[in-house]
Amino acid sequence: MMIYKYLLGPLLLLQGLWVRKKTPVLPEPVDQTSGSLGHGKPIKLLLLGDSSAAGVGAETAEASLLGQLLKNLAPAHQVNYQMLAKTGQTTAGMIEALKSQTSQSYDVVITALGVNDVTAQVPVKSWLKQQQNLLELIDQKFSPQMTYVSGLPPVREFPALPWPLNAYMGQCADDFNTALIALCDRQDRVMFHSLRGYPPEAQAAVDGFHPGPKVYALWAQYLSDDIAKSVIECQH
């Protein structure tokens, strides 16, 4: 990878600048980042992450990851939720943001971080240490029954990225995922959630970079199924 980076460095840099210039900036659709929805046995949910966690690529709050999670969970549960997510967020930035948060208990914490660390070219070893620090901080401040760590999406398939930038960034994302899976396997009450292998109809948003509505719907459905099996069933 290092040889690939140095040989193609100038081209990758130019392509990165071109992609940044031509890619439309999509809004964050979620305006209510905390609240309570539904009736039934309470469940507390905390969503942490970058623009994907913030729902960029969905046209409405209801179509975002949070909106779809609430749609799936609220019919049978009172979901008390909070979202801490913003465009451009990195793992290091999230750690700093959480340090100022009040400690409280959550049943479920979901993280979605890493793409901005890839674009910032954070070394995989440094990023993995940041992820470990993040998981430790989550456990200390929020004591969740389960933390779901979302993997990185198939970056090499992003329509917005030309070759060879897509190949290089895709390999970086693959390396992050491999390290992240191993980290999650070593943790208690932590589950890695893959964002790979979605059906063809689950496509990117109009910017060719962020998840589209069908991706958010499937992502939320798979998470909701895991939450039902790993957290909600244990509460009965």
TrEMBL record:
One of its GO terms (molecular function) is hydrolase activity, acting on ester bonds. It comes from the Bacteria. InterPro entries: SGNH_hydro, SGNH_hydro_sf. Pfam families: Lipase_GDSL_2. It comes from Marinicella litoralis. Residues 47-218 form the SGNH hydrolase-type esterase domain. This is Lysophospholipase L1-like esterase.
